[in-house]
Automatic annotation (TrEMBL):
It comes from Bacillus thermozeamaize. Pfam families: DUF4411. It comes from the Bacteria. This is Twitching motility protein PilT. InterPro entries: UCP008505.
């Protein structure tokens, strides 16, 4: 269950909300815990400073595998998986569903899949609290899947990948 910590709302500080693939790709591909442990410490420090967070539904995705990433998420980052069960997020989610289900470009299966995934809640959270979505998904105009960047564009939400976020925050991993 997600912590009842409320997102920090400010127009002065840029804040980021992380997609599951940020954690998963880093863990599996380029920032493995045993090779670059400082990356994971940096994430915790950025979260402590109120600059990054994720959502409860991403946490649910990370808990599907019993691996070091799940253990890290529960022991080190658990406090920063924020709830999507707020009036603001639910309102944004409704707007997002209105857009997706009213969009004739996407197949019905894609619309229903998007509605059931953490991706839609991530975009809704970002819209509700003016966060930037961090994801490794790329825009795709296939009618078979609604991608995070496409939904972000439709909702006026900014998005970028992990490396762009780290540069924006002037982070030096292991420097």
């Amino acid at each position: 269950m997600a912590q009842s910590v409320q997102p920090v709302q400010s127009t002065k500080t840029i804040r980021f909300v992380l997609d599951a693939n940020v954690f998963i790709n880093a863990h599996r591909l380029y920032y493995a815990f045993d090779i670059v442990p400082c990356f994971w410490r940096v994430l915790v420090e950025l979260a402590r400073r109120g600059l990054i967070a994720s959502i409860d539904r991403v946490k649910d995705e990370l808990q599907k595998n019993d691996d070091p990433l799940k253990k890290w998420a529960l022991s080190e980052f658990d406090h920063w998986f924020l709830s999507t069960d707020t009036e603001e997020v639910l309102d944004s989610y409704g707007q997002l569903m209105f857009w997706s289900f009213g969009n004739p470009h996407y197949e019905d299966v894609a619309k229903h899949q998007f509605a059931d995934e953490a991706d839609s809640w991530l975009v809704a959270f970002a819209k509700a609290y003016n966060y930037i979505v961090v994801t490794h998904e790329q825009p795709n105009h296939s009618p078979k899947k609604i991608k995070i960047p496409n939904a972000c564009k439709a909702m006026g939400v900014r998005y970028m990948n992990t490396f762009e976020m780290l540069r924006k925050l002037n982070v030096k991993v292991c420097a």
